[in-house]
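Sample pair:
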Amino acid sequence: MVYNTPQMGMDAVIAEFNGLSALLSRPDVGPVLLDFYAGLDLEDVVNGGDQFGVIRLEYFEMILAQNQVLENLGVSGRAELLAATVRLAQAKDSYHDVFGNSEGTWLAGKIIWMDHHDLLAGVDGASEYMETGFLMVYVADALDAAIAELFPE
């Protein structure tokens, strides 16, 4: 996908691929995708023999970041998804040569924006990032601080 922002790319794929539209309209879309994501083993994704595993994970995180999925999960489901996203993000640090700023950052940001808005309120560019997926450095720093507050080590 080559678009100006990740969300523009997702919107184009959703409009052209009926399977994704059907998935996003399922009444159980959130729990089904969350169960799969929460059970992922990053070692298997990176070294499991699927040469496109990392790319598939990035796209899967973009699907999870769609409003239809996040709204379907509700607050408790989003809390579980955020915990899984943070767990995988920490594991991705071991593979920094493979994962840069991943779509998991956008996913975590959207959940924090929805359920812990006060942690990002007043951050210049945060609203645009949540809508588009286009990350700016100052938003990334605020997200790191919010995650640290929500998941103290």
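Residues 6-150 form one domain.
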